[in-house]
Amino acid sequence: MSGAIRKMAVVDPLWQRIRREAAEAVEDEPLLGGLIHSSLLHHTTLDDALAYRVALKLASPEMSEQLLREIAGAAMADDPGIGRAARADLVAVLDRDPACHRLIQPILFFKGFQALMAYRVAHRLWLTGRRAMAWFLQMRISEVFGVDIHPGARMGQGIMIDHAHSIVIGETAVVADNVSMLHSVTLGGTGKGDGDRHPKIGENVLIGAGAKVLGNITVGCGSRIAAGSVVLTDVPPCTTVAGIPAKVVGEAGCNEPAATMEHRFGC
Question: How far is CA 235 from each of CA 30, 45, 117, 243, 266, rounded to the nearest angstrom?
Fold first, then answer.
């Protein structure tokens, strides 16, 4: 393979766009130049930048930024899927959140994306048997972002967690690709039973603010859970559920509620 071909093979259009946005942001707001340079422009790849950002946000007197950066960088090197998922998450936020106008916003400012990125590192540690370190990261993610995702939970890609305050996702929860959820969502268990005890969320599901989905139940693909609902039983695909306890109130109205972010009944 020639040098030119090798160079083309590593081109990352998303990273190139992020760097352009970062340079423009420094011109627009020079006082943020230090933050933007250290978090984005000083790095050669998006994966390096994300590892740095995770370390910077989670560092504390108990664990230094340098150590956390080494941990995050090693996890991302061991599992390239972390970087792929992060890219899908970034695009999801840009596409679905009307408050997001640049790809740099989630990386620098949105705690939903930042918490999810940090969870992905913790999940890799969990899978490789480093459970104490994974629990430590879970603790710091909860303390810093107000988002408590157990490192054993399985999260797909293209996930958007909007506002991301008081999110709780349990150990055996599964969230498929292209799901959107708002603040104060709980994917929890019921009772004290061990084992597989948390919800399984299908693709393209929209979970409204304050919704609680409890127990080892299935939420079918393309469904909507209305804000404030308490879901205790399986949700059929392509339906809208609402209430306490939640009941089917109609069809979802489209194939991808998570992409449209439409919460009104009948839409």
Answer: 50, 41, 28, 13, 17
